[in-house]
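Our consortium's second objective concerns turning raw sequence data into structural hypotheses that experimental partners can test. To show how far this objective has progressed, the report includes one record in full. It was chosen at random from the queue rather than selected for favorable results. The single chain below, 68 residues long, was entered without modification.
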Amino acid sequence: MGIFELFLVNEKIKQLISEKAPTQMIRQAAKDATRMISLREDGLYKVWKGMTTLEEVDRVAYKMDLGI
């Protein structure tokens, strides 16, 4: 079972990327502009649906939070 995060790049996000803005700023812009669902949010939804465990989501999302 996979958990996923996907966002569309709009002009604002493209500008932030080209300016080498902090990752957290880019992620927030994506959430604001496109209602992006984060990796952790998708994982928690799948925990609620009984498709995976909280421990597995924490393991994967923690690495993503650290940029690993």
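The partners drew two points from this record. DSSP finds four helices and no strands in the chain. Residues 54-66 form the longest helix (13 residues). Both points have been shared with the crystallography group to help prioritize constructs.
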